[in-house]
Amino acid sequence: MDSLFQNNLSQHQPLAEKLRPSNLSEFIGQEKIVGKDGAIRRMIDNDQLVSMIFWGPPGTGKTTLAKIIAESTQAKFVTISAVSSGVRELRTIVETARNDKELHSKKTILFVDEIHRWNKSQQDALLPHIEQGIVTLIGATTENPSFELNNALLSRSQVFVFERLDKDNIREIISRVGSRHGMILHSDVVELIVNVADGDARVALNTIEMLESTYDDVSTVTVDDVHGILEKVALRYDKHDEQHYNIISALHKTMRASDVNGALYWCGRMLFAGEDPLYIMRRIIVFASEDIGNADPQALQLCMAAQQTCHFLGMPECQYAVFQAVAYCANAPKSRAAYNAAKQVAQDIKDSPNDAVPMHLRNAPTQLMKDVGYGAQKKGESNLPKHLEGREYYQR
Fold first, then answer.
1. If pLDDT is split at 50, 70 and 90, which confidence band does 343 have?
2. Model-level pTM?
3. Cα 355 to Cα 385: distance, rounded to the nearest angstrom
4. C-alpha gyration radius of the chain
5. Of 135, 161, 187, which residue is a domain's last?
6. Which helix (H) or strand (E) holds 52?
């Protein structure tokens, strides 16, 4: 039952909270899992829920969908944040859920936001209660569950991947704001908000809310006005999460494909998000050695010079040397001959680490050693251990 002061609580709610959908018909995006044939829609229709992990970027509907599921299945919905809650809070929730199930046949959905923040022991504390059906877990995370969650927890949960909302989804959300609030935005402003949001509904709604609090009549707002209140668009990048590895992988693959435009773009994504230019240069130097090699030895020299430029100048001045190195490597001819040779040599050494040095390659500082054959090479004799004679490591 709502309190007498419920209106006071909702009066100052963020726009994103006020417009949060309450049922699947209002939910925007994630058609693969909540559309007509989506797995979650079928679970709701059949009232057969399993524990789930929602994995995806911020502002894509993870929390909203969890609340809709609880409402649609008449389950009690309990939400906690892994940032501020631990095992003690979990015990209290489980005890209440056990009583609700025994006395009232009431199901409990436990929504754990940012579940990746829990350590191994905290995650393990969930397992028996999930297995006994005391609670149905819905965990939300922006991090790759394969890296952040225990295998035992993953094996008891179904992972659903949330995609970043597409531009049409964001436009529909903005349109919904307009229809409910009588708000009219210029089409250019709408498109700018769509681009700034980058698939995050919350960013779009927060931007609109900022405009409403700044201007009496948002219909007069121009693109320049929006740029004025948005000092900097936050690039979706974290030096320690999956995006970090995805983008450095994109840089490698575009340089390997000789796609100079793609390589420059992915390099910029890291630089302008605050990545250490020395880290980027380390990866480019690796590429110059592994993928270009002797097809263009100048590449390695140029990359080492760019790395020294980063040491000497730092950002922002050194960015041009980094871009220069990326462009050179992307356009350079490629050869993995040295890389492949090193791999094969390493494998042969691993397989037979103590092969004897052929007699003719041995040092012969004494006459006795010369007499027994040290340092004496016969015509056509291999310089490799006997069982590797004829091996060709370096192939141009």
1. very high
2. 0.65
3. 6
4. 30
5. 161
6. strand 52-55
